[in-house]
Write a structure and sequence with these properties.
The complex is a heterodimer of chains A (about 140) and B (about 150). Chain A has about 140 residues and is mainly β. Chain A is about 10% helix and about 45% strand. Chain A has helices at about 10-20, 40; strands spanning about 25-30, 35-40, 45-55, 60, 70-75, 85, 90-95, 100-105, 115-125, 130-140. In chain B, the strands form two sheets. Chain B has a five-stranded mixed β-sheet, with no helix packed on it. A four-stranded antiparallel β-sheet of chain B has the order 2-4-8-6, with no helix packed on it. Classes of the chains: A mainly beta (about 140), B mainly beta (about 150). The interface between A and B is medium-sized, with 28 and 22 residues. Strand 4 (about 60) of chain A pairs parallel with strand 1 of chain B.
């Protein structure tokens, strides 16, 4: 069996789109993937808006996709109360036209240098896994 | 650049691609023609109770995924010490036909105890690591609860 090339170019494009999905040509991209913040600034509880897109390997948006994406947060800090929160709360949510938005916020805590907090975004599309992370790394204050 | 299904002149083709797009987004649920029943102890004692359940794989909006001829997992259970529940076809992986599968649930002729249940569970094959198109489809159940 092979994909036949049809006379109607639009039909061919649709089948090409399906073949990409069924080949696992999906990836998650985030509007930002890493940021460093000084300890003093981290203690103020900064927030970061993260745009999420489901794309193919060429960076084209899978605009047809309205399936789920999963948000999770974690951190490496041993400071009591230090944590990253995500809005909406960790869980699975339906994308809208292949896009979604989340906001992560560091708690107002005495974060230490080298602490990290990570938002992990995952999706499983037709059995193919895609994931991306946004990592906040705390660094020592420049004045110290 | 974004990729989405092109709208074609042929409406039927658009419907087909639209349905595939929903499936590939994981928009799939199991829909049962009947989800509960309440046979009485007297009815169960007098005769076997039979329920013909139509299982459909649909979108959340109720459109049947009639392209699907893959398998679903059937299970039957009961918590009664006297009566027994069974299904036809037997429990296990069974292929749908055009997104539909007929299942006959039978509660044996016996003095079932009030409050006891017979439960048909329809699942995807997620436990085998496959699911449907890689998506986990939530279980659906038909529960017959015996009443006094």
């Amino acid at each position: 069996m092979e994909y036949r090339v049809l006379e109607d170019a639009a039909v061919n494009e649709n089948f090409e789109l399906m073949s990409k999905i069924l080949s696992g040509d999906v990836k998650l991209t985030l509007s930002q993937t890493a940021v460093s913040v000084e300890a003093t600034d981290a203690a103020a509880g900064p927030s970061y808006k993260i745009g999420i897109r489901l794309e193919d390997s060429d960076g084209n948006l899978h605009k047809w996709y309205n399936g789920k994406v999963t948000l999770a947060v974690a951190d490496t800090s041993d400071v009591v109360g230090a944590a990253m929160a995500v809005d909406p709360v960790a869980g699975s949510y339906a994308m809208d036209g292949g896009t979604y938005g989340a906001k992560v916020t560091l708690s107002e805590s005495a974060w230490k240098a080298d602490d990290t907090a990570t938002l992990t975004v995952t999706a499983t599309v037709c059995g193919f896994n895609a994931s991306a992370t946004f990592v906040v790394t705390v660094k020592a204050d420049s004045g110290t | 650049m974004s990729m989405k299904f092109r709208t074609l002149e042929n409406a039927a083709l658009n419907d087909n691609f639209g349905l595939m797009a929903k499936a590939m987004s994981g928009d799939m649920v199991f829909s049962l023609s009947q989800t509960t029943a309440s046979p009485t102890v007297a009815e169960c004692t007098a005769a076997a109770q039979v329920y013909n359940i139509t299982v459909r794989l649909t979108t959340a909006a109720g459109e049947v995924h009639n392209w699907y001829n893959g398998k679903v997992l059937l299970a039957i259970a009961d918590d009664d010490d006297t009566g027994a529940a069974s299904i036809d076809p037997a429990a296990g992986e069974r292929a749908m036909t055009n997104g539909v599968l007929e299942v006959k649930v039978t509660m044996s002729k016996a003095a079932w105890t009030a409050g006891k249940k017979a439960t048909l569970t329809v699942s995807d094959l997620a436990t085998a690591g496959t699911g449907i198109l890689g998506f986990v489809v939530a279980d659906a159940t038909f529960v017959a609860t015996v009443k006094a």
